[in-house]
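Researcher: Go.
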Amino acid sequence: MKYVVVDLEMNNTSRKSGVSQFLKMETIEIGSVMLDENLQEIATFRTYIKPEYSDGIRKYISDLTGITNAMVAGAPGFREALRMFTTWCLGTGDEVKIYAWSDSDYAQISTEMMVKQYEICDMEKALLEKRWEDFQKEFDSYLGFERQLSLSMALDLAGIDFKGREHDALDDARNTAELLQIFKDKGRFEETLKRIKEAMEPTKLECTLGDLFDFSNIICSYDRPEGEFLHSYAGF
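Model: Structure:
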């Protein structure tokens, strides 16, 4: 068994493209880390993807991800890039389980495959027709959190310093993989749970305000209205 942790970066589609009603974003980077049965990194994958339905990389996307128009100008299109990714996943000849930090990455790929008419070959069915493991949901559920944690917040709770650049697909995938390693290690995760529990317990006050101050000689006049006071190849 091999474990693949994947992350995507995306760019807005243009309203003029005619597909924005169905596809609001399109993938511009796939980054991934492959782990062996002991959850040790053995290979990495990254490719940028040339967008098909936009007027270029939006400035806020470029500022967030570091991806520029020049970086995607000569990149493969979505269909070629996705085939490169699945070929890489299947290259070991072993069973593969794909993890993403949230279910949104699989939803993005599924929608994009439909809009861009990607034909899944028989070997890819296990990778693309089955939903990827939603690590965010698994992590939140195990801790008993109802709201979804961001990757950076989950790393903070686990005592992991983010390595690299946030919103770089390969760096995000690698940091998610490190969190997965801790999550699957019972001893390390018990220590993480202990730290999280201690961090979330309210601080107990040893004394009240009344113990600190003598208000007996203070006259307070209150005449205000009520409430006014105050994602290249490497490895193998």
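Model: The first helix runs from residue 59 to 65.
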